[in-house]
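fyi for ur records
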Amino acid sequence: MDTTCGPDGGDACSVNMARIHLMAGDLVSAYRAAVPSAEAGDRESMALLVDICTRAGDAERAQLWQSRLAG
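which gave:
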């Protein structure tokens, strides 16, 4: 994964934005920011989504992302 922001580094930016939203307590925005990278196979984003879903009390969705992370 490219660690820069911009057209070729969108994954790094989306993870950073997800973390910023998470620190601000905005779980919905954090989830939305992390999903595209996670769906593209970024493991860091998947782990972040497990954390976000767990904090939100969505055990089913947390398990889904945990399964994808393990696979």
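The helical segments are 10-23, 27-39, 43-56, 59-70. thats all i got for now
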